[in-house]
Design a protein that fits this description.
Its cofactor is Zn(2+). With about 325 residues, the protein is an alpha/beta fold. The protein has helices spanning about 5-20, 45-60, 70-85, 135-155, 175-180, 185-190, 215-230, 245-250, 265-275, 295-315; strands at about 90-100, 100-110, 115-125, 160-165, 190-200, 210, 235, 255-260. It has an eight-stranded mixed β-sheet with strand order 1-2-4-3-5-8-6-7, with helices on both faces. Helix 2 runs antiparallel to helix 3 (about 70-85), helix 2 crosses helix 4 (about 135-155) and helix 4 (about 135-155) packs across helix 10. The two termini are about 25 Å apart. The structure holds D-tryptophan, calcium ion (CA) and zinc ion (ZN) (2 copies).
Length: about 325
């Protein structure tokens, strides 16, 4: 959904207020400078969906999945890396072993910013072996990719250093993200001022859930949705169930967005969000029907724009 310029400026001001209210910083971090006036761009839904189409094609060409240790995962990683390399990112592939198979994380640094203050945004790129994993988690991977490409298109140069990540083997138990965090030096871990996680952000019967971990990050997302007039709920299904968990355990401020998995939507939630009560937020969760037809465009668009809003607002 596209915010009007005035609403976007209002929203940017809300981030400034949020940061000032919380001492101008992510919890625990040094006070951040006042956010720049630059407002986040609209993330084109068409761009995000083009990535989903590519990930679907990759799964179809590789046994129907993009799972850890299978050809479809590495092909997905190569697709994302090629886009980022072409856009001027400094990319690195981090290799690890899980369940006897080689896994890969993709880390992409945007040149510039204070490398002693790193803002990260990430998503797991692997699917389960039973399907293409388009909502889980092509949706997060594609939205984070398109946001990173928007940073490049804008030539954005925030105060903080931006780093984006696509994790391997999340479905085996947060293996890739945990490997990344465990292999950071204490000094490099301390430089990460926030990690934003996006795992299932386009569910077909969507809810709008905000992680309630770091208060400043949570407020940033809630302010974005307030600007849209869309109510949100605190995410309660996933503490420890996605790639923010290793970062949180290491003391990094974390946050994120989620549109729901196998839990069912209540009548009260239908009243605020629409959709179908008594039906799962994503009835294709971890199933072969998690294809490009398993996406709600409005939810994917709103959450893609929310990612950009938070990346711009928290890195200024
Ligand atoms: N673990 C995720 C799905 C998931 C379930 N609950 C949450 C809460 C927040 C983020 C993700 C999830 C997966 O299956 O990949
Ligand atoms: Ca958009
Ligand atoms: Zn999953
Ligand atoms: Zn997932």
């Amino acid at each position: 959904m596209k915010l009007s310029v005035s609403a976007r400026a209002l929203a940017a001001g809300a981030v400034a207020a949020a940061l000032l209210l919380t001492g101008g910083s992510l919890a625990g971090a040094a006070p951040a400078p006042a956010p720049s006036a630059a407002a986040a761009p609209d993330i084109p839904l068409s761009g995000v969906k083009a990535h989903l189409t590519q990930l679907q094609s990759i799964a179809t060409a590789n046994g129907g999945n993009r799972a850890h240790g299978r050809p479809g995962y590495k092909a997905s990683l190569d697709y994302v890396k090629a886009k980022l390399d072409a856009a001027g990112y400094t990319t690195a592939i981090q290799q690890f072993t899980a369940s006897g198979r080689t896994g890969y994380n993709l880390i992409a640094d945007w040149p510039g910013g204070d490398t002693n203050q790193v803002l990260m945004a990430g998503s797991h790129l692997d699917s389960v072996s039973s399907g293409a994993g388009i909502n889980d988690n092509g949706s997060g991977s594609a939205a984070v990719l398109e946001t990173a490409l928007a940073v490049s298109r804008a030539g954005y140069q925030p105060t903080k250093h931006l780093r984006f990540a696509w994790w391997g083997a999340e479905e085996l138990g947060l293996v890739g993200s945990r490997y990344y965090v465990n292999n950071l030096s204490a000094a490099n871990r301390a430089k990460i001022r926030g990690y934003l996680n996006f795992d299932m952000i386009g569910s077909p019967n969507p809810g709008y859930f905000v992680y309630d971990d770091d208060p400043a990050i949570e407020k940033t997302f809630k302010d974005y949705y307030a600007g849209l007039g869309v109510p949100t709920e605190i995410e309660t299904e996933g503490d420890g169930r996605s790639d923010h968990a290793p970062f949180k355990s290491a003391g990094v401020p974390v946050g994120g967005l989620f549109t729901g998995a196998s839990r069912t939507k209540t009548a009260a939630q239908v009243a605020k969000w629409g959709g179908t009560s008594g039906q799962a937020f994503d009835r294709c969760y971890h199933s072969s029907c998690d294809t490009t037809s398993n996406i709600n465009d409005t939810a994917l668009d709103r959450n893609s724009d929310a990612i950009a809003y938070a990346v711009w607002g928290l890195s200024a």
